[in-house]
Amino acid sequence: MITQSLLSLTDKTALVTGGAAGIGKASALILAQAGANVMIADLNLEAAEHTAEEIKKLTGRNIEYVACNILQDDQLVNAVNKTIETFGQIHILVNNAGGGRWP
């Protein structure tokens, strides 16, 4: 596989916001194929769980998930803390989820 030959992320940890679908899901899959453990953070917990299970089956990597609304500071802190508790540290952060705050 191209990603495995060009990029090895064996035993690195990635946190992917908006990781249950679309670009986030594709990012999580590519990271897992390259050897990373992945935490999928998404508003839709059911979709995040489904995506995590799908990627686990395809790659054999440790894929976990957490509910996270990126507009809520406490949920962001929880996603980071759960990732660190599960995997030890975060090496890669994919800020994929949409959203924003207006002044």
UniProtKB/TrEMBL annotation:
Q: Name one Pfam family in it.
A: adh_short
Q: Which InterPro entries match?
A: NAD(P)-bd_dom_sf, SDR_fam
Q: Which domain of life is it from?
A: Bacteria
What name does this protein carry?
7-alpha-hydroxysteroid dehydrogenase
User: What species is this protein from?
Assistant: Acinetobacter schindleri NIPH 900
**Which lineage do the record's taxonomy fields give for this organism?**
Bacteria, Pseudomonadati, Pseudomonadota, Gammaproteobacteria, Moraxellales
